[in-house]
Each structure stands twice: as structure tokens, then as C-alpha cells.
Specification:
With 366 residues, the protein is α/β, with parallel strands linked by helices. It has ten helices and eleven strands. The mean pLDDT is 92.
Length: 366
Amino acid sequence: MLSATPLHAQEIVGRMPRGWEPQCSYPLAWQGEGDFEQWRREARERVKEQMGIAPAEPLSTDYTILASEQREGYVAHKIELEISRGNHIRAYLLIPEGEGPFPALVAMHDHGAKFSIGKEKMVAPIAESPEVVAEADEWLTKCYDGVYTGDYFASQGYVVLAIDALLWGNRGEGEDGRQTKYDTQQALASNCLKLGTTLVGIITWDDLRSIDFLAAQEFVDSKRIGVYGHSMGGHRAWMAAALSDKVAAVASVCWMATSDALLAAGNNELKGGSAFTMQIPHISRWLDNPDIASLACPRPALFISGSSDKLFPAGVVEAYEKMAAVWRSQGAEEMFGYSLFPSPHYFGKLMQQSVARFFDTHLREQ
């Protein structure tokens, strides 16, 4: 007669199901030799397949200007554009004064469990309510050292586009789209899976569409488009660079670590919630985070983290070194850089200056 398993046996350890602790070999990671372009094609298709990402489709490159403001050295527009078939969203488009075409940047906002503002985290609100302006200013102090980075880059001669990711700003719940509750992302992610897609896939698809939209504008130099962001925005930036060759340079701030480290007991990612906006189903059977980011190789890439970032306490340097090896294998080691600042989860002015120097080096005409 067999004895029953003790009822007190733990089946959930460190918020992981027993037997599923991360022990991944990542078989589709770049191994340092072979046909690099073939690897990139195969790995990209795997990432898209796991995300349930939509196939490319031609969309209108036209947009409607809803409001405009003259700012120092550039014009700030609130626009409406078609982000997916029949789906129009509001965005901010900043265009420098002078003769184009100009280099351009897609400014990708963070998560922060702050859904009522999105694009307003990157660009000073345009024709918005005093409440939205106050929220944006407060968030800027909390996360960006008081600087609207999109406006800064526009004042330096870059076209800047900032959209709301799905759930944020005008793309959430409520009549004005700004009433999203925290639990909504979990419900939406669950429903996406039932429909054969993912929340991270939709967010990434919209970011790729943003790049395509910019590249089609006559005032933009389509060969000089960069992407950048902080936190979830940093994740969005390296995902976009990994999947689109239209990205000429990428700067990612405070979002990178190995999957093994992120899945360790006690790590922030295991708390759930926000993870649904950034986690690709089943991807660890094939690729690690730095493997996916390395799909941007050999184009210029800058990764920045804070040494006291509690959201990424481990696995950061290991991820950076793995990426550096990929760029080195392609003879492009000078195109990859990473830095650790004595900082928490924060995109401060010193980090911003580093990103500015990076884009000036790689996107400005020499």
C-alpha cells in the first residue's frame, strides 16, 4: 500500500510551481559562430510567434493635428494617427524649426502603475486639462529629474513621437481613457491569450507601427531614427530595436537582466501584475532577454542601469556582458555600450546626458 504525499508538501516555492524553476539553456541564443543574419531571421520569427504579433500591414501615414503649441525651437503637436487597422489614437509629435529632414526619436514611456498618463511622461502635455498637467509634472519629479526628455530632444533638433501604450493615457478605461485600474492589465492580458495574442505583443506592435509612421514622414530622415525609454519604456525600446531594422540606434534605461535572475525568489517580477506587459509566453524555452535584445546587433545600442535599482537587483551585468559578446562577435564592439550609475530605478539628468551624447554620436550627420 502506497503512503499518501504529505499535505504540507509545498507546490509553490518562491512563487514558482515546483519543478519549473528556471534551468533554461536558451538553445536559440547566438552561439558566436555561423550565419548571423540567418540566426537573426529565425530568432525574430520565434519572438514574433510567441508574442502572437500581428503581420505587417500597410496603414495610412497621414495624421490629423488636433492642437499645436510653439515652443522654444520646435512646434509641439497633439495629433491623431492610425495605430492599427481602423484604430486611431492620440499622440504627441514635436517638429524642430528649420530645414529637414531631421533625425527622429520615438520616446517610450514607463509603466510605474501610473496609467492615467502615458505620452505625458515624455512630452509636456499639449492642450490637456490642469489635472493631467499636474500629474505629469509630479511624475516628472519622481522619475525623470524634472525633465520632459522628449521636449529636450526636440529643442536639440530631433523630431520626437510619443504615443500611449495600450492601457495608458487616452488608451485606457473610462470616457477619457484615463481611468484604468491596476487589475485591468491582468484581465486584458488573459483575454489577449484567449484571442491568440499577448499584451506585450500589442504594445510592441504599436511601437513598431510608430517607427514605420515616423519613417514615412517627409520631414524625417528615415535612416536616422532612434528609440529610447526608461523602465517599461526601456523594455519597449530594445524590443523595437530587436524587431525593426528601421531603428538606427537604441538607448534603454533601467530594464535589463537575465531571466534566471528575474525569476529568482523575492524578485519584483514574481509579484505578477506589471509582468504581463513585458513577458513573452514560453520564450525561455528559446531565448533569454539579452538574446532578444542582441537582435539589434550590430547597430548602436546603449544600456544604462542603476546600481541600487531594487527592481533589478541581480543579473544585470551578466546580461550586458552576454550582449557585449554578441556585438564583439560581429566586429562591432564599439557600437555597444553599457553603464551602471549610482542610482535607483530613476532616469536622472546624468543618465539623460549620456543618452543625449549617444544619439548625437550616432544619429547626427557628421
